[in-house]
Amino acid sequence: MYKTLSTGSRCGLKPMCRWICAGLLVFVFGFTGLSFAESAEGGAEILSGQTVVAEEGEEHLPPMAVVLFSIGPVPVTNSMVSSWLAASVLIAVAVRFRRQVRAGHHTLLTGTIEALVIFLHGFLADILGKKLAEKTFWLLGSFFIFILCSNWLGLFPGIGSVGWGHETEHMFKVTRPLFRGVNADLNTTLAMGALFFLFWFIWAWKSNGPVGIVKHIFAPKGDMKGVMYFVMAVVFVAVGFLEVFSIIIRPFSLALRLYGNIFAGEVMLETMLHKIPALGWLLPVPFYLMEVLVGLIQALVFTLLSAVFVMLICSHEEAEEH
Q1: Cα separations (Å) of 78 from 25, 177, 239, 242, 292?
Q2: Statement: residue 99 has pLDDT above 90
Q3: pTM for this predicted structure
Q4: Where are the alpha helices (DSSP H) in 57-107?
Q5: pLDDT single digits (tens) 7-27
Q6: Per-residue pLDDT averaged across 160-168, rounded?
Q7: Which of the listed ranges 4-18, 20-34, 147-161 does the model predict with the highest average pLDDT?
Q8: For the chain, what is the radius of gyration of the CA atoms?
Q9: Pairing relation of β-strands 74-77 and 67-71?
Q10: Among residues 167, 166, 189, which one has the least CA distance to residue 79?
Q11: How far apart are CA 88 and CA 196, in angstroms?
């Protein structure tokens, strides 16, 4: 079994090194692009607002991440700290995997990662085709791994419950958590959506060229002649403007879908934890199990939609091969 996995995943071992680069690129992009949702001055206002809300007894997760400190003009939030923790875990696992493979040691870790690489590569190849999947696998696979790791990391004890706060009548209340679910912050999901849009544009440019992109969006499709061609040309131009609008909002739809689902899940867990204090140890358990599944599904949905968006603009490559 290990021999089969090792042989079948050689095409995925090289992208494993790229996963680290892609992950670091996501974090650097999110770090420098924090102004998507808040500024350094706005972060201080949000922080004070969150503290007031917590002191008034609000149990729900605040919509904005708490600013812990600033590096120059850039505020560092608790969700960014969680993303660095997720990055460290992924990089450590990747380094460990590489060393074991080079040493020829087949362990449960190497087998699991190789099986995951084979699954992701096959999944994307079924959507994009083999050639396009090999070109985009390093980024789309990184998205899946990072989102899945971040979602499951947010379910660990201590995420949201370790930090600064004050004593209350019943327990210690954390008002400034050190960690927050990575994808429960709109900054992170917007950074990944913008990063995907950047590489989508690069792949579309390389695949079609500037003229090809315009033709793909606005040119009439099908074999039409005579008056019908000019009539359909007007229709396709109108549809092309709708397609341009659709392309522009794609990164936002990816970001908002992921953020909304993960943020709603964390709010639900927080509510179940404090709804009946005497049963706070039991009520969240089934919802934790559900969130494990939701974290996997959301990682898969983000990767699937990204692959479909790439396929729609670059699919002619596979058609020419056939």
Answers
A1: 19, 7, 43, 38, 21
A2: yes
A3: 0.79
A4: 78-103
A5: 344 444 454 445 445 554 544
A6: 78
A7: 147-161
A8: 23
A9: antiparallel
A10: 189
A11: 22
177 has which bridge partners? 163
Report which of 313, 309, 321 is spatially closest to residue 252, judged by C-alpha positions: 309
**Is the separation of the CB atoms in 177 and 62 below 8 Å?**
no
Q: What does the domain layout of the chain look like in residue ranges?
A: 2-321
Cβ–Cβ < 8 Å for 82, 153: yes
Contact criterion met (CB below 8 Å) for 47 and 147: no
Between CA 292 and CA 297 the distance in angstroms is: 9
**Cα angle, residue 218 at apex, residues 217 and 224 outer, rounded to 5°:** 120
Tokens 């969240």 found at: 284
| Contact between 292 and 155 (Cβ < 8 Å) | yes
Q: How far apart are CA 184 and CA 79, in angstroms?
A: 8
Strands (E) across the chain are located at 67-71, 74-77, 163-167, 172-177
d(CA 203, CA 212): 12
Alpha-carbon span 203 to 122, nearest angstrom = 20
Angle between helices 10-32 and 130-153 (to 10 degrees): 60
CA distance to 83, 125, 225, 314, per residue, from 27 (Å): 7, 27, 51, 27
49 to each of 45, 56, 94, 289, how far by Cα in Å? 6, 11, 40, 32
Nearest to 250 by CA among 311, 294, 184, 185: 311
Beta-bridge mates of residue 69: 76
Residue at 282: amino acid letter: L
